[in-house]
Design a protein that fits this description.
By secondary structure, this protein is of the alpha/beta class. It contains twelve helices and seven strands. 38% of the residues are buried. The mean pLDDT is 93.
């Protein structure tokens, strides 16, 4: 069930993302958070790929959430945010969580990084109660075919270099599973999910801003290392934060040619 967000709610989402992350990452996370905000998620909520806990901090409010992640340092950051009822350091395919104990599950921009993803989906199905909802977001094939750098190089007749650029960008992004819906639907079916709904979002123009933003965001990396914060001046008037444009993106997020895909699946009863 989807519940439409009002302007104040959208602006709050944008503040939580853009004031705490480099803008190119924050604009994508803001769109994704808006999708989760419109979902009814039964507790306990299983968060696969908790990371540093920022996304959960922005999304959840006094809900029972179980976070799972294999990396120690990000988990220490997540612990400090005090958003999780339980944090578990574990691989996604071997989570020490009781079977059929969670009402719903989320995974945001995580599954595309996992080499052996089918066992991870199997594990999500195991921990969910029958009929439990699994909601996740992943980039799709347009991260391979529609990158700005590829278009520039191709326009110059450097097609081989364009292909190399695509491979390099996705390698440093640690992307492995940039797959179309047909493949994800088959994986979900094998794991025992049905009633799958999905849509594409984040237009190619936004992808290009995200792509170029990796270089423009170098000052953010400096602030993070010096002061422990990605953003020093948390203000809508900050010229390096395109606040109003991101609000507009969140308010009109759907795009049939979008570069990312959002899925909602139900564990078979």
């Amino acid at each position: 069930m989807m519940t439409k967000l009002n302007r104040k709610e959208v602006e709050s989402i944008c503040e939580k993302q853009l004031f705490h992350l480099p803008y190119f990452r924050g604009m994508l996370r803001a769109v994704e958070q808006s999708f989760y905000e419109q979902q009814e998620l039964e507790e306990p909520i299983y968060d696969l790929g908790a990371g540093d806990g920022h996304f959960a901090w922005a999304l959840f409010k006094d809900q029972k959430v179980i976070g799972v992640d294999p990396w120690w340092q990000p988990m220490m950051e997540a612990k400090a945010r005090r958003v999780y009822s339980l944090l578990v350091r574990s691989e996604g395919a071997l989570a020490p969580v009781e079977s059929a104990s969670c009402g719903s599950a989320i995974s945001n921009s995580v599954l595309e990084h996992i080499p052996e993803v089918q066992p991870v989906l199997d594990e999500v199905a195991r921990v969910l109660k029958p009929g439990g909802k699994f909601v996740f977001a992943v980039p799709n094939r347009r991260f391979v075919t529609d990158l700005w750098g590829m278009q520039v190089l191709s326009s110059l007749g450097l097609k081989s270099l364009a292909v190399f650029y695509s491979r390099f960008f996705n390698k440093i992004s640690r992307h492995i599973n940039l797959d179309p819906p047909e493949i994800w639907l088959e994986r979900l079916k094998k794991s025992g999910f049905d009633q799958v709904e999905y849509w594409h979002y984040f237009p190619v123009s936004a992808l290009h801003k995200l792509e170029r933003g990796h270089a423009a965001g170098l000052p953010n990396l400096l602030w993070k290392r010096l002061f422990g914060k990605w953003v020093l001046f948390k203000n809508r008037r900050n010229p390096f934060i395109p606040f109003e444009k991101v609000v507009q993106l969140v308010e009109s997020p759907y795009d049939d040619e979008g570069t990312c895909t959002f899925y909602i699946a139900r564990r078979q009863a």
